[in-house]
TrEMBL record:
CDD domains: ABC_Carb_Solutes_like (cd03259). One of its GO terms (molecular function) is ATP binding. Its EC number is 3.6.3.20. It comes from the Bacteria. It is an enzyme of class 3 (hydrolase). The keyword Membrane applies. InterPro entries: AAA+_ATPase (IPR003593), ABC_transporter-like_ATP-bd (IPR003439), ABC_transpr_FbpC (IPR015853), ABC_transpr_MalK/UgpC-like (IPR047641), Mo/tungstate-bd_C_term_dom (IPR008995), NA-bd_OB-fold (IPR012340), OB_MalK-like (IPR040582), P-loop_NTPase (IPR027417). It holds the Pfam family ABC_tran. This is sn-glycerol-3-phosphate import ATP-binding protein UgpC. Belongs to the ABC transporter superfamily. GO terms for cellular component: ATP-binding cassette (ABC) transporter complex, substrate-binding subunit-containing. Keywords: ATP-binding, Cell membrane, Hydrolase, Membrane, Nucleotide-binding, Transport.
Amino acid sequence: MAKITLSKLRHSYLPNPKSSSDYALKEIDLDWQDGGAYALLGPSGCGKSTLLNIISGLLTPSEGQILFDGKDVTKLPPDQRNIAQVFQFPVIYDTMTVYDNLAFPLRNRGRDEATVERRVMAIAEMLEVTDMLNVRAANLSPDNKQKISMGRGLVREDVNVVMFDEPLTVIDPHLKWKLRSKLKELHQRVRATMIYVTHDQTEALTFADQVVVMELGQVVQIGTPVELFERPAHTFVGHFIGSPGMNILPCTLQAGVVQFGTHTVTLEGPIQGAADGKTEIGIRPEFVALADTGLPATVTKVSDVGRHVIVECQSQGHKINAVVEGTAPEVGADVHLDLKREQTRLYVDGWLATEPGERT
């Protein structure tokens, strides 16, 4: 297990990058603490796999350093980094038994059979596969094959980090929750440093203690699941996380007064900086309520998702979602929307520009 540090890391697939747009990874500085559970979250093409390949040693960055416990490993090949990796598709040997699959990484490194048996039995118990140790892997269900693939990554005690690259992509939806819960349980028991790469916000938020959200090769926010939901540092985070995502509405700012169309909006607190640039209001649907007074709107769609109702409205020519408990108005109804002040934030050029507290 190791603390992983990325220092001034940048990467371009071009031989002579000249501008920021030439870099697949913009400058990244971050620390992953020893024993932590982390997720890299973002859409396809955002740089997650590039970063994962750099950490694993499959790719040498154009600039910057990767350090494991302070040791520079930037130029080291994968086999000298003591990394275990679990991929989208289970990497196991179908002709071997479950026991032999779990034992393979240890035997490959010359561990004695007593150590092999101790570790295999411990991991098998954690994975709840003890009763299938003598079963050939070819006869396993897809979720059990992925369990064994996870076990192969966890069985070694000398790994610096275990990396999961979209490990549940091929798993049936009704089994994903079970495997996510098992993976979280495994982390709590073995306390290995784990990095989970995914485009699925549910997977990232349920597994990780800290989530790194990426867009276009840039880290836009690092935080706990609660922090990402409650205070998105960027409009992309607000849009990408949540279902539905944050309402992002254009606004104007004059003499400290924020206007959405003809409606004055009160923000959570003071505006930081000059606010020169594109200004937008951000508020999550969970904090938009139907009220007797407030922002005039017309209901355009009602979606009952079971535990609550999502009411889609039009106001000032823009869509606004509200999460409503109980009875919802009918489509076409004229309503008023109350934007909860302490959850109404200003973004300038995409970045959060307000702080909590009373505005002056």
